[in-house]
Amino acid sequence: MNRLIYESRDSELNKIVLDDLPGGPEAFELAAKFCYGIAVDLTASNISGLRCAAEYLEMTEDLEEGNLIFKTEAFLSYVVLSSWRDSIIVLKSCEKLSPWAENLQIVRRCSESIAWKACANPKGIRWAYTGRPPKISSPKWNDMKDSSPSRSQPVPPDWWFEDVSILRIDHFVRVVTAIKVKGMRFELIGAAIMHYAAKWLTGLIRESSGTADEISSYSASNSNGSCSSWKGGLHMIVAGMKDDPPTVQAKDQRMIIESLISIIPPQKDSVSCSFLLRLLRMANMLKVAPALVTELEKRVGMQFEQATLADLLIPAYSKGETLYDVDLVQRLLEHFLVQEQTESSSPSRQSFSDKHMYDASQRGNGTSAKMRVARLVDGYLTEVARDRNLSLTKFQVLAEALPESARTCDDGLYRAIDSYLKVISNFCY
User: Fold this and answer.
1) 385 within domain boundaries
2) Domain boundary at 118, 147, 182, which?
3) pTM above 0.85, yes or no
4) C-alpha angle with apex 83: 51 to 95, nearest 5 degrees?
5) What is the total count of domains within the chain?
6) Rounded to 5 degrees, what are φ and ψ at 54?
7) Residue 346: pLDDT band by 50, 70, 90 thresholds?
8) Which among 236, 293, 333, 358 has most CB atoms closer than 10 A?
9) Rounded (10°) CA dihedral 239, 241, 247, 251
10) Is residue 176 part of a domain?
11) Among candidate residues 88, 118, 148, the one where a domain is terminated
């Protein structure tokens, strides 16, 4: 402040404006109290702002031992980073302190601390956490409930989902990235991403109040090596089909979707196919970056046999001629077939007996998947055939995309053709 006054060269200066001070008036008041020897209560709520303000005000050890930078650094290192709750609160408070909190490594250190604790063995957890609420509500980070683990009540694998989901998307990405590096199971990471999406993407509407239970059951079933109990992901539908959603909200949601796509684990079944399709629906509506949309389409193709008809009925948000996005489903089917072809030709370094058993198993699984997809495509064709704007070429290309061996019965395809011919004949007359 002395330097600011000196550099101003204004003899009548009676006011100094520090409008870029990180932490604002609250942090400055605490720093001023510290200078005058008044006791300052350091807490998780004020420490990040005060640490940034101390850096801005150059309160270093060069001027006096035990200055404010030293005090706040010590509190961060020995108090905050050792606590799950405090690490979450501090990282949340860093949202208003860019780029200071980033440059001072507060965001990185809190993210690492949270990641280490999230990866801890649930049996060894003795700290308080919020836990999964009975019903997902709007995010309020300061309304955390004490939910201390007890010996009689085991800590669930998804105990950290709710606390982490309060974070802004860029900080959530930092935490998830750190968790990945530390070896967290991919199905738990995927379930955490679905939980976050359910909370922050307001364009997704839950069809039932059991969404959180379904996310939990998905992570549990995957951790047991099976996903047979998973019945269609988050069960979400897109709200509305507005051409021009609110600009700010659309921009925020687009950023969230793009960020979530980029951190979904690459392994198959890390998230449900239903969730991927609903994310894809919203990505198309909000005009997400084409490269990320393509990546999402490929992910759907990896587990296309798990899709449902309701998931595939995605409106054509671009001003096309058809009601539903038939071209999108065509691309998803192509990605599925490429994936099937890749998997069937992948084993190369196995013994003859192992390779024979693997080939037999793969043929069985591949055939079963193709049969499920064939039934799905036939049902989709029957539904979209009612659209009189659907061209014969698009109908035919989609109907013929699967190999003949995929259909053990052609009844579904005949029904689709019959529906299409009825619509065409009614339109002609």
Assistant:
1) yes
2) 118
3) no
4) 45
5) 2
6) -65, -40
7) low
8) 236
9) 60
10) no
11) 118
Across 385-397, average pLDDT: 90
Inter-residue contact 367 to 343 (CB < 8 Å)? no
Lowest-pLDDT range of 112-121, 174-183, 291-300, 353-362: 353-362
336 or 212: which leads in pLDDT: 336
Helix (H, G, I), strand (E, B) or coil at 238: strand
Contacts of 191 (CB under 8 A, 6+ apart): 158, 161, 215, 216, 218, 219, 222, 271
CA dihedral 244, 247, 252, 255 (to 10 degrees): 60
Contact 219, 248 (CB under 8 A): no
Peptide bond into 266 cis (omega under 30): no
In a domain, 333, yes or no: yes
H/E stretch holding 206: strand 204-206
Report the alpha-carbon distance of residue 101 to residue 272 in Å, rounded. 35
Question: Which residue from 149, 112, 113 is spatially nearest to 130, judged by alpha carbons?
Answer: 149
Range of the domain at 86: 1-118
- Of 391, 382, 387, 385, nearest to 411 by C-alpha is 382
pLDDT at 134: 52
